[in-house]
Amino acid sequence: MVSLDEKQQKVQSKRFSSEEMKDILSGYLYISPFFIVFAIIGLYPAIFSLILAFQKWNGLGEMEFVGLNNFKVILSDPLFWKSVYNTIILGLMGTAPQLVVGLVLAFLLNLTYLRFKAFFRVTIFMPYITSMVAVALVFSVFFSNNETALVNYLIGLFGFDPVNWKTSEWGAKIAISTMVFWRWLGYNTIIYLAGMQSISNELYEAAKIDGASKLQQLRHITIPLLKPFILLTVFFSTVGAMQLFTEPTVFLGNTAFARDEAMTVVMYLYRDAFKLSSFGTASAAAIVLLLFIVCASAVNMMLTQGFGKNRRGR
């Protein structure tokens, strides 16, 4: 015979299990909108693009399986490798300087005796929240091929001839990389500034007592303790540089996809998909771009792990 206490325990355990199940289900219901939206606008397009990479499709007719032929087409296309070269060069020219200058600006904004800090921080961060299309349009005016354009006028004061910024090889690269530098400088500066503010002031006070200058404090205290933030900005800047699209497209205008001076990998796959109606080769280019990004991410992960081991070994 089952005792009354045992029956009560069974009833209570069933009640607790049902309440626990309700809590679990309610938790999944709360987070389900994110996963539903992600599946619709993120996961499904990614899977569909992977399938298209092995198909020949113009967007309207039936798909035709072609295996690795799309990859052979893009890897044997000189324009694709030109777009890879342009992406790397624009990334280096637009990313590397902003990381160095952003570090210096963050150090200056972190000085205790600097006045109007809030104003300078907001001013530096403003380009990041500005519309990229508006930025590209303004820079297209500054870097116009006209001799009276702002940049041509300024370099003319130093005796240089006007530059055809939108048609010359390095002119377009310099203009676009300058645009990227200007827009993302404030973003990296704010990240570095947040990292600097997490460093204890006692370290700087001890360095002052030992007679360390501001440059020595930056070199021996700030930069070593900012390595995680530096690696973070390098990672995001690398991924962003590989996905460069809006800046060169708006800056070059109607000739963006007809010329190769500043065509990036994303512009190349966009041209194949929406200009040439070759969604198969465009998807193949997207897969190759993904592999490039994964390789860059792996390098950043190795650098991060190495950094952690070095700190634990000290």
Features:
314 residues; mainly alpha; 13 helices; 76% helix; disordered C terminus
Describe the structure.
This protein is mainly α and about 325 residues long. It is about 75% helix and about 0% strand. It is built from 13 helices and two strands. It has a two-stranded antiparallel ribbon. α2 (about 70-75) crosses α13 (about 280-314), α5 (about 130-140) crosses α7 and α7 (about 170-195) packs antiparallel against α11. It is globular. The relative contact order is 0.12.
Overall helicity: over 70%
Q: What is the total tally of β strands? A: 2
Query: Which residues sit in consecutive blocks of at least 5 with pLDDT less than 50?
Result: 310-314
Name the helix and strand elements from N-terminus to C-terminus, one letter apiece: HEEHHHHHHHHHHHH
Strand order of the largest sheet: 1-2
- Structure classification: mainly alpha
Count of discrete alpha- or pi-helical segments spanning 4 or more residues: 13
Rounded to the nearest angstrom, the distance between the terminal CA atoms is: 68 Å
Q: What proportion strand? A: under 5%
Q: Give the overall silhouette.
A: globular
Give the overall pLDDT as a whole number.
Answer: 83
Radius of gyration: 27 Å
* Sheet with most strands: 2 strands, antiparallel
